[in-house]
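Sorry, explain these tokens?

***
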Amino acid sequence: MFLDKVKIECKAGNGGNGVVAFRREKFVPNGGPSGGDGGKGGDIIFKVSKNMDNLGEFRFKKKFKAEDGLAGSANNKFGKDGKDLIIFVPKGTVIKNASNGKIIADMFDDDEEITVLKGGDGGRGNSHFATPTRQAPRFAELGVVTKAFELVLELKTLADVGLVGFPNVGKSTLLSSVSNAKPKIANYHFTTLTPNIAVVNGFGKSFVMADIPGLISGASEGLGLGIDFLRHIERTRLLIHVVDISGSEGRDPYMDYLAINKELSRYGKHVENIPQIIALNKSDMVFDEQVIVDFKKKVGEKPIFVISAYTHTGLNELIECVIKTLDKLPKIQKSEIEEENIDKRNLKEFKVEKVSNNVFEVTGELVFEIMKRVNLEDMTSNAYFQKRIKNDGIIDALKEIGLQEGDLIRIGDYELQYFE
């Protein structure tokens, strides 16, 4: 099954916990703390795979988690880092933050890889907290627990030229006639259900052409195959607008031409501004040449080629024009990154608030980070925590909004009474 848009959940690995340990050596009566640090959690990495052409592999597997770091051990031994998780995607995949729609990465190049989520840092062992006055610290930091994020993966075909037009106008036949592609071709609507891509060679040059599934009136609003495949022409440099000039489907060729352009305009994202070359296909079935003359008059000064993909009439002239036009157009550009670090946090940020008469609440990344790294059941760890909130300015900020001796301070699920 072809899949070109999917939502997945990703979580980097948690950091391993630091440990509390002490050296026990012969002839060393006061060995001192020797707790090792926890290992770093694994990263979430996306990488382009040459063996994928759609997102079908994400149809059933939607949750991805990197390996956690391991806890440290005695004798200052570090815990093992968690393994990174590499998620393979096809070239042209755009990765977005599902919560705000911002672009995190554009997997634009062959073998490109990018780290989207970084694993949590390991906690420090108790050896880090020894001081002249605290020679045997009985606490260590916990590893950082990472957050899970929802990401949207969108595949946007990377092609120089896109074929657009109503169903059954001969786009697939045209693609097969100018390349080695073998798309499914039949005389009914929506034979092409997925974009077909092929390399076209001619006049000493080559370019990539994509056959986009047929559009109908209302496609931009979801009718027919709808908006799902319009995204595949967003990054094409040039469009070949294929029109059935014979009217074999009982429609007026010029009205078809107007209807497709209307859908492109409605879709937006500048696709209506992509240069077009018009290919009047099925000319071998035209019995009154006046139809072609009338169409050209209505369209005006635009590049128009009368072709027959079936008999190969006019294809050389069309391809030559395409190559000359591409030479004048800018290359396909990578999407602009809108959010470089999805898990960016300000570890110095906190907020204080008076919630009732004698109760104050502290929130924010600073206290969240401190709370994750201490063990409040341990007396010395608790003392370290209280020293941190004083040294980091939290107590001063609470005093500014009215904190008095005996008042209650609430930090997450933890409550403490304030005394000077």
